[in-house]
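Please produce the structure of this protein holding zinc ion.
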Amino acid sequence: MSNRCPDCEHFVSLEISEEDEFHTDPEIDDEGNINAEFRLLLNCAECGGEMKESAVEFYVEPMEEIQEHINKYVPGVDDESDHEFEVECTSSFVGERYSGDSKIPRRFRKKFYVIDLEFGVRCETHPTWPGYSVAVTKEVRASDMEDIN
Ligand SMILES: [Zn+2]
Ligand SMILES: [Zn+2]
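Below is the modeled complex.
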């Protein structure tokens, strides 16, 4: 697979962009469901022009910690039973892997981008609750990336 860069017009290799620190703006609902979209971006290794992208959806189920926290406060009985959950992406890393036997040349193997994200959850109403962090991983096949130009 060769990639011709529309900016510098060279046939180039691609590199993973680290332009935006975490490329994601996660959201959490009242039950603790986390949704986030990560923009995986590949740049021209020579001029840095944007070449391929993929919007990768992440979903994390409510953890036991948040269910216990919610159950501690009975609506209508306890004061401050309204939670204001906050989530942020605390770490992100994109790596690569190739499927199959490592003795086979890479060009005959499927390439994947591996996205590791970590989310931290807190409650604004109850700042003494330590919250938790959760790590999630997703893979994108390199051939499924979309051309930007
Ligand atoms: Zn280029
Ligand atoms: Zn709370």
